[in-house]
Amino acid sequence: MEADHEWMYEGRIVNGLFSNKWGDKVDEFVVFVLRHPECVNGGTAIRCPCTLVKCQNKKFLNVETVKVHLYKNGFVPDYYVWIYHGEKEVHQRCSSSIRVSVSETDQMVSDNMNHTTYHRMVCDAAGPEFNPDKEPNAEARNFYDMIQAGDKPVYEGNSKHTQLSVAVRMLEIKCRHRCSQAWFDDMSNFIHELLPPDNLMPLDFYSTKKLVRGLGLPVQVIHCCVNNCMIYWGDDSDLNSCKKCGHARYKQTVRGSGNRLYIRKLKVPYKKMHYFPITPRLQRLYASTATANEMRWHSKHHMEDGKMCHPSDASAWKHFDGCFPDFSSEVQNVRLGLFADGFQSFGQSGQQYSLWPVVVTSYNLPPDLCMKEEFMFLTVLVPGPTNPKGKIDVFLQPLIVELKSLWGVGVQTYDISKRQNFQMRAALMWTINDFPAYSMMSGWSTAGMLACPHCMEDSDAFRLIKSGKQSWFDNHRKFLPINHPYRRNIKDFIKNRKVTKQFPGVRSGDEILQDLNNRGLRKVIDVDAEVVNAAISKTCGWNKRSIFWDLPYWREHLLRHNLDVMHIKKNVFDNIFNTVFNIPGKTKDTYKSRDELNKYCRRPQFAQNLVTSKYPDVPFVLNKSQKKDVLEWVKKLRFPDGYSSNLGRCVDANKLKMFGMKSHDCHVFMQRLLPIALREFLPNRIWEPLTEISLFFKQLTYSSLTDEELRNLDEQIPVILCNLEKIFPPSFFDSMEHLPMHLAYEARIAGPVHYRWMYPPERYLRKIKHKIMNKAQVESSISIGYIMDEAAKFASFYFKEGDPTLPLKEKRNEVYLDDIVDDDMFEIFKPPGKAINAEGKRYLADNEYTAAHLYILMNCPEVQPFIDVFVTEKRKQFPNLNDEVVNAVTEQEFPSWFEKYVCS
User: Fold this and answer.
1) How far apart are CA 11 and CA 23, in angstroms?
2) Where are the beta strands (DSSP E) in 303-417?
3) What's 557-605 look like in SS3?
4) Which residues contact 777 (CB under 8 A, 6 or more apart)?
5) What does each C-alpha distance from 73 to 18, 57, 63, 64, 269 come to in angstroms?
6) For residue 740, cis peptide bond before it (omega within 30 degrees of 0)
7) What's the Cα-to-Cα distance from 289 to each of 29, 214, 346, 714, rounded to whole Å?
8) Residue 451 exposed, middle or buried by CB count within 10 Å (0-12, 13-18, 19+)
9) Contact predicate 647/669, CB 8 Å
10) Beta-carbon count within 10 A of 586 CB
11) Strand pairing partners for 222?
12) Is the pLDDT of residue 113 over 50?
């Protein structure tokens, strides 16, 4: 039986007819399967490999039915290795895409080797050059030990688990539930006692970690200057003191005083960083069939109806392909995104210890896997206790060097799904950060009146007279069409001011790079960078030359650094909510803002009363009773499980405010609740702009968007912001109220927002924080935990028999009944979940019963043909009915019509 299975996807239909030659190949396939009794069920049934959702190597059917399915539907994609039909996969490095036959496989591996999924796991982790038959060298010893452990049952007579499978399962449980080493040791000892004597159950965490150490990926520990001036790496690796500040590299070797002096035997650095090379982690994505196919998804995906649902649909991706066709021609090359953020290791109330992980993720993956935890790779762990701020580039040097190597030369990588070598290259597409970290990564200061990285020197921000704060008030009319009436309005904005200038547009990479070169800005790793950059930064918004400009392709990107929609939306919501609710200390409507209001605007109705010295009420602030009504309404709200946290817990009924709202709570309130909450209490001229900004963020965060929709949003947002300027005082508009101006443009360039915001990174950083088990060694604790976590995640692909698959995460109320639910059952009655709390019973009221009945009928796919018949009859009787009336008539009359129709 030849192992070149390309015929499966070629020549099935020739000139509109089924090919006899292809049919002969199908017959050979069936004969091959029947030679392997372990793949045959009941003597005649085999797994059907057709493309039907119910089949796809999951369902056993008789041989003739399988043939019919294959003729009709063809083979499931990328099924080149018939692992469900008796063929075993070979981990052999090939110089071409030629498949290796089963007979060749048997010659390459030991005859007595039991090929379980855990053997496949070891071979995938070791790489195609690993041969278990050869005497192992020191480097291969770890994998050889795991192969041996995979052959030994955990106790005599157990055919389900081996010593290796128990070790990786226990390790995965520890990592998933964040258990301590003490718990692991105690549980291992307890299980050891439960098993029969002479069992091979690992006794503690140390022995487990030693057994599976081959699954771990490398990490480098690099010494740093205690003042973050430099790292002792590359040409500077042999220095004993900082070349900038002169601080010693190592702690003093002699300690104590008088007669109690002692000499430290080992050289201990003052500070060290951890670097996790990205190359082997990207190679591992191609090492397992669970992920290798998915890494080529972006090349097979095509836009439908002009909707962007992935960064590969956006113009930034396509522009990069056009600039570097040699890179884009290899679909296995990797596109990366980078994000960095800091957190306090010991919480806000503990010791201040700021830690900054730098994480990389791949954009090759499909939407359901992209930006998921399994495909985020910790790359740099910038040590604390201080915030690196602009010196973060010092710690990014190893990453930039590796990225340059991956771009210029690449690395030979084995794609197990295609069973061939290729030269893998990688390119960094952009960075994702909150606004302060944006400055650290890009080198453009995000503080002051030039804070906007899109407007740059074209900003019209100014400093308020009384409060001394920067204001972006009346900074948005320049984005309007040249003939828009708001441009000539001299009353509602800055008084007596007309706007004729237009926004010149976002600068290109070449323009920015030329500006940096002309100004003479230095990289922070340069010796004279601090002095030179400090002098230049006083005259412009730049404070350094970012290290990312060392990447040869960085200038060609349409978007290099992303504005974070998550934090921008939260800040906009906080300003609106705190001002409308007049929260003391947080509202933007203060006595200082009232005092300076009429110095900028013509709003005499809000000026101070000279007789009473009081300021009149403004229409955008709720009174006490209105606040109570809104908060009571919020307290009674109930959401679907997982949709939002319990906002009722954030309500403070005594102080009439909300507290402790997380970013996602603000996201839900801003997009869903704000227009409803304020509808009855604010005048239309105030409520409508607030609703418009709410709908803007809602539409912006859709999972799929068309270019036309984004252009419409880009045209709407300056009008929305101008309408808000007509309501709120100048003190309301800080840089966060200005940044929404550029969000639709970025989405149009780079694709949907949820691939470029901080929600996934923030959740990932929370998991990193939980790996801190030793507060005296924070970075080392995280490093050890992360390496174990990587090994556990990789091992979890192989927990089920058959082809490695990504583990399925069930939600707490989710069940899967594919194996027990009757196929004839109506789709709507297949329970998608289970109750969280104890079940209860009650009788439905008449209106509830009617609503439930209507919902079932209108959402049952099997009833849809009858709905179509009903609608057709109504349109024949009343040809002039519009869709809205037809829908209303359907809801009212269809249930009774359906009952009569079925009974007749």
Assistant:
1) 10
2) 307-308, 334-340, 343-344, 354-362, 376-382, 411-415
3) CCCCEECCHHHHHHHHHHHHHHHHCCCCCCCCCCHHHHHHHHHHCCCHH
4) none
5) 12, 13, 15, 14, 64
6) no
7) 22, 19, 40, 42
8) buried
9) yes
10) 14
11) 273
12) no
Task: Express each pLDDT in 620-647 by its tens digit.
Answer: 999 999 999 999 999 999 888 788 889 9
Residue 673 identity (one-letter amino acid)? L
Q: Residue 273: which H helix or E strand, with range?
A: strand 271-275
> Which of 651, 657, 752 lies closest to 699 in space, CA to CA?
752
Q: What is the full DSSP assignment across 491-547?
A: SSSSTT---------PPPHHHHHHHHHHHT---TTSTTHHHHHHHHHTSSSB-S--G
For residue 406, what are its two tokens? 């991956």
Average pLDDT of every residue of the chain: 86
Q: State the DSSP string of 692-716.
A: HHHHHHHHHT-SSEEHHHHHHHHHH
C-alpha to C-alpha distance for 698 and 696, rounded to whole angstroms: 5
Q: How high is the pLDDT of residue 88?
A: 62
Token pair of 546 as six digits: 């970012």
Closest by Cα among 84, 24, 29, 31 to 60? 84
Of 183, 674, 741, 200, give the one whose Cα is nearest residue 461.
Answer: 741
Neighbours of 96 (CB within 10 A): 8
Give the span between the Cα atoms of 59 and 47, in whole angstroms: 5
- Other C-beta atoms closer than 10 Å to the C-beta of 229 total 20
Query: Is residue 138 very low, low, confident or very high in pLDDT (cuts 50, 70, 90)?
Result: low
- Answer whether 33's CB lies under 8 Å from 46's CB: yes
CB contact at 8 A, 673 and 634: yes
Give the pair of three-digit tokens for residue 78. 């990328």
The CA radius of gyration of the chain, in Å to the nearest whole number, is 32
| 706-716 as b/e: b if 16+ CB within 10 A | eeebbeebbeb
530 token code pair:
């601090």
Give the separation between CA 59 and CA 818, rounded to whole angstroms.
11
Q: Report the alpha-carbon distance of residue 256 to residue 622 in Å, rounded.
A: 66
Do residues 382 and 358 touch, judged by C-beta distance below 8 A? yes
pLDDT digits (tens, 9 = 90+) for 254-290: 666 556 656 666 788 999 999 999 999 999 999 888 8
Q: What is the spatial distance between Cα 40 and Cα 544, in angstroms, rounded to a whole number?
A: 67
What's the rounded Cα separation, in Å, for the pair 306 and 894? 36
Residue 846: the pLDDT is: 85
Side-chain-side CA neighbours of 582 within 13 Å: the count stands at 12
Residue 123 structure tokens? 């071979």
Identity at 572, one-letter amino acid code: V
Angle 200-205-206 from CA coordinates, rounded to 5°:
90
CA–CA separation, 770 and 178 (whole Å): 7
**Distance (Å, whole) CA 363 – CA 372:** 11
Angle separating helix axes 117-126 and 163-177, nearest 10 degrees: 70
- Whole-structure pTM value: 0.80
Q: In sequence order, what DSSP letters do the residues of 821-857 get, joined into one string?
A: S-TTS-GGGS--B--SS-----PPPHHHHHHHHHHHH
If pLDDT is split at 50, 70 and 90, which confidence band does 57 have? confident
Count other C-beta atoms under 10 Å from residue 212's C-beta: 26
* Helical ranges in 127-180 per DSSP H: 141-151, 163-177
Q: Mean per-residue pLDDT for 85-103?
A: 44
